[in-house]
Amino acid sequence: MESTNIWWSRHEPWPMIVHVYQSGSNCLEKQTWLYRGRTKMEDEDPRTNRNLSLVLHEPTVLDSGEYTCTIKEEERVVRTKSLRMNWVLSCCCSVRVAKSCSPGVL
């Protein structure tokens, strides 16, 4: 899993990069401005525990929509998982987006 890259993205209302984990570390400069400073991988080293959950801080109604987790190895897509999140109230400081995009399920 050394060369594994993890991309969290959205495609509505326009294509956005939510979070990128690449070459063993978070690659936040690739994020869409809307998510800067608001995301982190739940596990500091997802390659070790295979936990690819994304934590989204300060969620709002604007964060509602479909999120896609894409796992790439050697630039080849090995798994893609999408889920829809609907925020009704912004009543919490952070939310875990998903725990279901795991390379162990290949």
Q: What is the third-level CATH name, the topology?
A: Immunoglobulin-like
Structural class: mainly beta
Number of domains: 1
Give the second-level CATH assignment, the architecture.
Sandwich
SSE arrangement, N to C = EEEEHEEEE
Number of strands: 8
Give the percentage of residues in beta strands.
35-45%
CATH superfamily: Immunoglobulins
Helix content: under 10%
Radius of gyration: 13 Å
Low-pLDDT stretches are: 90-94, 102-106
Q: For the terminal residues, how far apart are their CA atoms? A: 13 Å
The first-level CATH class is given as Mainly Beta
Output the strand order for the largest sheet.
3-2-1-6-7
Mean pLDDT: 78
* Count of alpha and pi helical runs: 1
Overall, the morphology is globular
How would you characterize the largest beta sheet? 5 strands, antiparallel
Please explain how this structure is put together.
This protein is mostly beta strands. The protein has one domain: Immunoglobulins (Immunoglobulin-like), CATH 2.60.40.10. It is 4% helix and 42% strand. It contains one helix and eight strands; from the N terminus they run E-E-E-E-H-E-E-E-E. A five-stranded antiparallel beta sheet has the order 3-2-1-6-7, with no helix packed on it. A three-stranded antiparallel beta sheet has the order 4-5-8, with no helix packed on it. A hairpin with a 5-residue loop joins strand 1 and strand 2 (16-22).
